[in-house]
Specification:
Number of strands: 18
Oligomer: single chain
Number of helices: 10
Mean pLDDT: 89
Strand content: 15-25%
Radius of gyration: 22 Å
Low-confidence stretches: none
């Protein structure tokens, strides 16, 4: 972890929407929100260049940052609200009152920011001090009250600044979260000009009744929630840091590499006897296939040592935004959760074999195609399929998406120089976003043990060479 003397807390404040701008509001949860209750907070860090001293930040930049955050929270008020979890048979809900606010920590660090945001492997604990923790949960009048959002801004004097986020996934998926971040950054860049959100099409859509439930998924989701609630009350307190002895690294697929890989992989899929017509080997499919097989090969010896056999299924999970699907006639600005799980499975011996990348690509492409017309069905059966996947212990998930345009967040200091997902430290996920420096490229980060990361690097390079 970063040395204790490399970062110090300068101030802790609370920011709220302008007084009286948001009435007391209650928002129900939908069956697409419930599955995220057991999920730990989403924690991300956005790094920016900032060639100014801390005094300049405190006097010039921080007031605008706080003011624009206040204006953004007026429209994205669920993020400063409370998640209310009453005992059965009552339903959980989001409650916003006029005294709600979000915590904002301001810190200063003497650490080498270029090392923190590097692509090469480094101790994953180095990033922990820069991603905030959510505040403690509480019980009020028998109702479990969960915090939703926290912020931390850290200044690296004359070198850079980073903004750390932590938010409860029950309230917002990746699309909703990034809608907020882009709105906040635009307001900040404009020095707090509120006209940016005068356009209704840019504001979040909060009508939860727009999520229909023809299959009665809410009842099943509620039962799962009550089961979670019974144990959650026994584990109150702030989120705990999980000690890990792992390294974090980022791998880049350039546009040129992807352009070479797509026809190469498409040709091999077509030559395979079990190729299905209509499958599209997209940039997403190519990226995920290479990452999946490289990861499986890097973990191969450990998986075998744990007693998993070659004919066991391994799983790959990605989220599909359903806002654009015909079964979900929602505006793209719907605020909440509207994602369905795309669960891919393949046998381990097929993934680590000679044609592993073909197996992975076809399985992922097939699931992507299915989700184009069956997203609602996948969302409805998601909890049972996810339970099967988690129970197996042989899975990897994707956090993020290039469609979220995460690098399009300019607070007035230029685009981010690096974005990191601190919540992937358990090793069960890869983070995926667009390559900052080139259209059409992809940027993937992951956390592994040092030995596994060395093996992954070799496997990744071999996968790229195979297409030459």
């Amino acid at each position: 972890m970063a040395p204790s003397d490399s970062i110090k807390i300068v101030d802790k404040v609370h920011v709220s929407a302008p007084a009286g701008s948001v009435p007391t509001t209650t928002l129900p949860l939908t069956y697409l929100d419930f599955p995220w209750f057991p999920c730990p907070p989403m924690r991300s860090i956005f790094f920016y260049e900032y060639p100014h001293p801390t005094s300049h930040f405190m006097q010039t930049t921080l007031p605008t940052l706080k003011h624009s955050l206040s204006l953004a929270l007026q429209h994205f008020f669920p993020l400063e609200a409370k998640l209310m979890c009453p005992p059965p048979p009552l339903n959980p809900y989001i409650l916003h009152t006029d005294d709600d606010s979000v915590p904002l920590t301001i810190a200063e660090s003497t650490a080498d920011v270029n090392h923190l945001k590097a692509d090469y492997p480094r101790d994953t604990k180095l990033l922990h001090p820069y991603a905030p923790q959510l505040q403690s949960s509480a019980v009020l009048d028998g109702i479990l009250v969960l915090p939703i959002m926290a912020f931390q801004v850290t200044v690296f004097p004359n070198a850079g600044v980073c903004i750390g986020f932590a938010h409860n996934h029950v309230v917002a998926d990746g699309s909703s979260f990034m809608h907020f971040v882009r709105s906040w950054s635009s307001l900040c860049k404009s020095k707090g000009d509120p006209t940016f959100l005068n356009d209704v099409s840019r504001r979040p859509f909060h009508n939860r009744d727009a999520i229909k439930d023809p299959a009665g998924c809410t009842d099943i989701a509620m039962n799962d929630y009550w089961h979670w609630l019974s144990s959650a009350r026994d584990n109150l307190g702030p989120s705990k840091e999980i000690p890990v002895d792992k390294v974090r690294a980022t791998f880049i697929l350039t546009s040129a590499q992807i352009s070479q890989l797509k026809p190469w992989l498409t040709s091999r899929c077509q030559n395979n006897s079990s190729y299905l017509e209509g499958l599209h080997i997209s940039t997403f499919v190519v990226t995920c296939a290479i990452m999946w097989i490289s990861l499986m090969k890097s973990q191969d010896s450990e998986i075998s040592a744990n007693g998993y056999y070659d004919d066991k299924f391994c799983y790959f999970l990605f989220a599909v935004d359903c806002r654009s699907r015909v079964e979900f006639p929602l505006p793209l600005t719907y605020f909440g959760n509207c994602v369905a799980p795309g669960i891919v499975r393949a046998k381990k011996n097929d993934l680590v074999g000679k044609n592993g990348i073909i197996t992975a690509a076809k399985a992922i492409a097939r699931k992507v195609k299915e989700m184009e017309s069956e997203a609602l069905k996948e969302a409805e059966k998601g909890p049972s399929d996810l339970e099967e996947m988690f129970r197996s212990g042989r899975f990897v998930g994707i956090s993020g998406s290039p469609k979220l345009r995460m690098y399009d967040t300019d607070f007035g200091w230029g685009r981010p120089t690096k974005i990191e997902f601190a919540h992937i430290d358990d090793g069960g996920s890869l983070s995926l976003c667009e390559f900052r420096d080139e259209p059409g490229g992809m940027e993937v980060s992951l956390v592994l043990s040092k030995d596994q990361m060395d093996a992954f690097t070799v496997n990744f390079a071999e996968s790229l060479r195979s297409s030459n």
